[in-house]
Structures are given as structure tokens and as C-alpha cells.
Write a structure and sequence with these properties.
By secondary structure, this protein is α+β, with helices and mostly antiparallel strands. The protein is about 40% helix and about 25% strand. It has 7 helices and 7 strands. Strands 2-1-7-6-5-4-3 form a 7-stranded mixed β-sheet.
């Protein structure tokens, strides 16, 4: 009986400890539940390992509602073109960890290579997108949910 209790206590402790571990960008996006399309696109583009990597990264992450604004045929074509999809997704990623309060108006270089335009008047905006949820923490960076998919120029 004592052995059974010991194993039960050990299992409970292991569960509590593992639940306390932070999650990477991908796991955090999955857990949030509002980035299903983004996570599918990241998988299709082969970017999972990158976004699970060391980072840190700041991801301006389009919500499922943001992806719903993209015409279906355009989104389907994008999901089938891996190179273009990678370019669009990495345009949403900035090296480093930038919290919403630290955003400065101006241009910032993305992982894709082009620059995003950030503004702060009336809340943080990224090109034409508005940040609708800021500072979703991950162990390798931060996610800012945005209301529009931004496209590289």
C-alpha cells in the first residue's frame, strides 16, 4: 500500500512540475485556441522547428478571424505555395522579444527581410493590422494577436 501511495504522489508531482514548464511560440499558439489557421500554415510551411527554436521571437500572429478575412481561393493558393507561405509567415516575425509597451513607432526588419511599419497611436498597429491581444508570453518570445493578415510588399 505504501508503494502505491508513493507512486501516486510521484505521478502527481511530475504532473504539477510538467504543467509549470513554459511553452514555446507554437505550443502557446495551440493552447490559445484562436490561432488554428496560423498553426496549420506554420506546419504547411515547415516552420514549426524554427518557431520552437531558441529565439527569442516576437510574432504578430493573425487570429483565425484575421485569416477568415482573406478570400478562400487566395488563402487556399497561399497554403499550396510553400515558398510564398513561408515569406508571408516570416513577415509576421521579428527577431527579439518586444513587449507591447516597448513598441516604438517606425519600421522594423522582419525575419522575412522586409520591414513592418509599427504605430502606437490608439494602440499598437502593424502595417494595416491592429493588435487585439498583446503580450502572450512564450518561453522563446512573445505573441501579439493581430486582426489582419499582413502581406509583404
Amino acid at each position: 500500500m505504501k508503494l502505491k501511495s508513493l507512486f501516486g504522489a510521484a505521478a502527481l508531482c511530475a504532473g504539477l512540475v510538467s504543467g509549470a514548464w513554459a511553452k514555446d511560440i507554437v505550443d502557446t499558439a495551440v493552447a490559445a485556441g484562436s490561432f488554428k489557421t496560423l498553426v496549420s500554415a506554420v506546419q504547411a510551411a515547415g516552420l514549426v522547428d524554427t518557431l520552437k527554436g531558441r529565439g527569442p521571437y516576437t510574432v504578430f500572429a493573425p487570429t483565425d478571424e484575421a485569416f477568415a478575412k482573406v478570400p478562400k481561393e487566395q488563402l487556399d493558393a497561399l497554403l499550396k505555395d510553400k515558398d510564398r507561405l513561408r515569406a508571408v509567415l516570416t513577415y509576421h516575425v521579428v527577431p527579439g522579444k518586444v513587449m507591447a509597451q516597448d513598441v516604438k513607432p517606425g519600421r522594423v526588419k522582419t525575419v522575412q527581410g522586409q520591414e513592418l511599419t509599427l504605430t502606437t497611436e490608439g494602440g499598437v498597429r502593424v502595417d494595416a493590422a491592429r493588435v487585439v491581444q498583446a503580450d502572450v508570453m512564450a518561453d522563446n518570445g512573445v505573441i501579439h494577436a493581430i486582426d489582419t493578415v499582413v502581406m509583404p510588399r
